[in-house]
Structures are given as structure tokens and as C-alpha cells.
Design brief:
This protein is an alpha+beta fold and 346 residues long. Helices cover 28% and strands 25% of the residues. The radius of gyration is 42 Å and the shape is rod-shaped. 21% of the residues are buried.
Length: 346
């Protein structure tokens, strides 16, 4: 009996200990704070101050461009503005030197992510271009805003001319493109190398290009190209015409006498049309060659319409007798007006 009592006591003690331990564990589980939850921070790439949204995937980085890197949980790299050196390289802590020239922002992101995987399990990196400086195109001549423009992505000739403010009214009929040979020759028929062997030069007819008659000439412009739009060739019409002055040769390099006179407002009644003349510049000299023009016969269809070349001066003299007659008619009209007015007042 005593042994049975002792065993019951031992069993009661063991059960009590087990129950006490269970209550202690239960109380710890209810009071212990939940484990911290991991938070994810979304990296939002700030918009570049220049260029469109496609610049990240199309613009090729180059020397003197400035970029900003955004790396989550990497304070040594994040929000740091970096400028590509003359070799197109950037140098950063942890990563070292990277040749970024020739890469887009997206391609550079991929390269940075690859290198950061040595330190982070899933690195999050974004790259934005803060300053575009490595792909200049010079547009000079008769455009709205001549100067140096930065190419951001793939741009054609028409797009570059639009960025430069479009063509001025006195722009010539063609545009010249000059390209460094290390960029390749210009892919146009008639493109030639300059005498130094360093540049490729081509001319594009603007009228056929703008009228979409030659869309294949709307080529992609490369960095460091020079686009020049010359001043239009002109002829000058002076003397007894409605509007004396220069006339732009919009249809090539010549126009006829009648076309020039028509563009100048026609001849006046005081013109001596039979004594008109063309003053044509001579080669290598300051003097001009005089070409007689019987504008009276041309207007009547009794003589051929003569061509005018760039730089020609068409002079239509006045007739003294016609001037005297015109003055007499004008005086008579003035007297009649005064008499009618005076009579009406009386």
C-alpha cells in the first residue's frame, strides 16, 4: 500500500510539472510579438529633365553624359550623379569601373544588377540620364533655331530639321549632310568623300523630301553630323515693276524672265518694256555682262522667254514719255477731284 501511495504521489508531481511547463509555454506564445514583416520599397525612376520616355531604351550613353543611379539598400551608390569620363567610363564603390559608353540606360541597369548580385540576393537598380551631352548634331543655315542639338534616340533628317525650328522662307532647295567617316559613309546615292578623306558629304533635295517623293532620303542622322541649309539662290528684279527686290529660285537654279516679272508684281505702265536687260555676273570678275531683253515681244509671245540664272539682275527701265503722260493724267485727275469737291462744297 505504501508503495502504491508513493507511486501515485510521484505521478501527481510529474503531471504537475508537465502542466506547469505547458502553461508557461502557452503564456510565452501569447505574449511574444509577431516577427517583423519585410517591407518592399518601390523604386520610381525620376523623369529626365530632357528627352522623352523612350530615351532610356534608345539613347546611347557617351562621354560627358551625366547619369543618376538609384539602388535600393545600397546608400553608397544610390542618388549619386555620375558623369562619364572622356573614355566613356564610370567608377563606383563596390562595383569598380564600368565602360558605359555605347550602352542604353536599361543596358547599364542590367550590368549594374549583375555586379551587385555578389553583394545582394535580388538587387534593384534604376538608371536615369540627367544630362544629354555626348551626341551633338550641328544644324546651321536657314533654319529657325540654328545651333547644336543633342540627339536623343533614333532621329531622321526631317526630325532634326523640325527640332531646329523648321526651314526659313529663304531656305535653299537642298540640304547638305557632312559625316565623319568613322561613323560610316552616308547611305545616299551621290555621297562623296571630301579631299581630306575624313568626311562623307551628300546633298538631299528638300522639295522631293518634304513632298514624300523620295522617302528613302530621310536617313537616320548620326551623332556629330553637320546639317547645313544654304540660303536660297535669288535673282533681282529692279526698275519699273510692282515690287522690286530679290526673287527666290524655288524650282532649282533658274527661272524665266516672265516668272520673275510676275513674282515682282508685273510691270508698271511707265515701263519701257522693249528696253529691258539682264545684268549677268561674269566669272572671276566684278563686271556684269549685259543681255538685251525685249520684254514687250516676250509678253506678246513674239519672242522666246529667256532664262534667269542665280545672281542675275533683271532691269526694267522707265519711259520718259510714259512718265510724262502718266503725270499729266494724274494731275488732271487731281484737278477734277478738287473741282468736284469744291463744287460740292459750294
Amino acid at each position: 500500500m505504501r508503495d502504491m501511495c508513493r507511486s501515485k504521489v510521484k505521478m501527481n508531481i510529474i503531471c504537475g510539472v508537465i502542466l506547469a511547463s505547458g502553461f508557461e509555454l502557452l503564456s510565452q506564445s501569447t505574449t511574444q510579438p509577431p516577427p517583423p514583416q519585410s517591407t518592399q520599397v518601390e523604386i520610381r525612376e525620376p523623369r529626365s529633365t530632357e528627352g522623352g520616355a523612350d530615351a532610356r531604351s534608345t539613347y546611347l550613353l557617351g562621354p560627358d553624359d551625366q547619369i543618376v543611379i538609384h539602388a535600393l539598400n545600397v546608400p553608397d551608390l544610390s542618388e549619386k550623379a555620375l558623369r562619364l569620363d572622356l573614355n566613356g567610363d564610370i567608377k563606383m564603390p563596390m562595383i569598380g569601373r564600368i565602360h558605359a559608353a555605347g550602352l542604353t540606360a536599361e543596358e547599364l541597369e542590367a550590368e549594374l544588377t549583375k555586379r551587385l548580385k555578389f553583394y545582394l540576393e535580388e538587387p534593384e537598380v534604376a538608371v536615369s540620364v540627367a544630362e544629354f551631352r555626348s551626341q551633338p548634331v550641328s544644324v546651321i543655315g536657314e533654319v529657325g533655331t540654328p545651333g547644336v542639338h543633342q540627339v536623343q534616340g533614333r532621329k531622321t533628317l526631317i526630325e532634326i530639321l523640325s527640332l531646329a525650328g523648321g526651314l526659313r522662307p529663304d531656305a535653299g532647295s537642298s540640304v547638305r549632310i557632312t559625316r565623319r567617316l568613322d561613323q560610316g559613309r552616308i547611305p545616299l546615292p551621290g555621297a562623296t568623300d571630301d579631299p581630306t578623306g575624313k568626311f562623307s558629304i551628300a546633298e538631299v533635295d528638300l522639295k522631293s523630301l518634304l513632298e514624300a517623293k523620295s522617302p528613302e532620303k530621310n536617313i537616320v542622322i548620326c551623332p556629330h553630323d553637320v546639317i547645313s541649309v544654304p540660303h536660297a539662290e535669288v535673282v533681282y528684279v529692279l526698275g519699273e515693276v510692282g515690287k522690286a527686290g530679290p526673287v527666290v529660285l524655288t524650282e532649282g537654279h533658274s527661272m524665266s524672265v516672265l516668272e520673275a516679272v510676275s513674282s515682282s508684281g508685273g510691270v508698271l505702265r511707265t515701263a519701257a518694256t522693249a528696253n529691258a536687260k539682264i545684268l549677268r555676273p561674269s566669272e572671276g570678275g566684278r563686271r556684269r555682262t549685259e543681255v538685251p531683253v525685249d520684254l514687250k515681244k516676250i509678253l506678246k509671245g513674239q519672242a522666246d522667254d529667256l532664262p534667269l540664272l542665280a545672281g542675275d539682275i533683271l532691269f526694267v527701265p522707265g519711259s520718259n514719255s510714259k512718265r510724262a503722260t502718266t503725270r499729266a493724267i494724274e494731275a488732271a485727275l487731281q484737278v477734277g477731284i478738287l473741282a468736284g469737291t469744291y463744287g460740292a462744297i459750294r
